[in-house]
Amino acid sequence: MKLYTYWRSLATFRVRMTLNLKGLAFEPIYVDLDAGQQRLPHFKAVNPQMVIPALVEDDGNVLYQSMAIMEYLNEIRPEPPLLPADARGRARVRALSLITVADSHPLIVPRVRNHLGNVLGLGEEGKIAWVRHWFSAGLDAYEAHLARDKATGSYCHGETISLADICLVSHVAGHRIFKGALDDHPTVTRIFERCLKDERIASAQPLRQPGAPARH
Ligand SMILES: N[C@@H](CCC(=O)N[C@@H](CS)C(=O)NCC(=O)O)C(=O)O
Question: How far apart are CA 202 and CA 195, in angstroms?
């Protein structure tokens, strides 16, 4: 499989974690988002939406949208399961995942930040404040749900890693890239740190990818 990826891409980070957890090898193809390579014709031919990740299977089938890719990988490679066995558990894990995938991350991607700057005239400081606001709002939602819910364990849902953890880790990593604090989010911090003890997650981190700055 070929994964179109970039060190800082949080959506691609989610897919890298999933591939690692499933023990699936992939060949990375780098798309420099800072240089706008996602808009070049050769990548547009792969994913007309001009966003990463895109995962290309050996027969040429193209998968896109991180949540769909993660669910697909979980179906074709069931072990270890990244969704609970019960319907309520699956609904909870998907709901936690969507706090970042649907309600936070889409607000901070490059094309949104570019639009805020180029079309609406927001300066660099304003754009950073915007990003921090939406990351913090997502973290508040995670913390409130995880802290009050008995289903929360060492991980977001019980004692095994699920899609919710993958999504939470990507959210916290993004928050940190933009220098956000975690002081008010003890449950999120505990789960994030626990997840990073797993090398399959740790090795997929943005700052461990080729092209990443030594520190950010
Ligand atoms: N909802 C999509 C988000 C895809 C997305 O926006 N990816 C970002 C990188 S994390 C991207 O390629 N952005 C390019 C741009 O905004 O121009 C997913 O989860 O896969």
Answer: 8
Type and span of the H or E element at 166:
helix 163-177
- AA identity, residue 102: A
Cβ 101 under 6 angstroms from ligand 1: yes
What tens digit of pLDDT does each residue of 154-169 get?
Answer: 999 999 999 999 999 9
Asked if residue 170 lies in contact with residue 14, where contact means CB atoms within 8 angstroms, the answer is yes
Find out whether the beta carbon of 33 lies less than 6 Å from any atom of ligand 1.
yes
Span from the CA of 86 to the centroid of ligand 1 (angstroms):
30
Please give the distance, rounded to the nearest whole angstrom, from the Cα atom of residue 153 to the centre of ligand 1.
30
Q: Write out the E strands in the chain.
A: 2-5, 27-30, 54-56, 62-64
pTM assigned to the model? 0.97
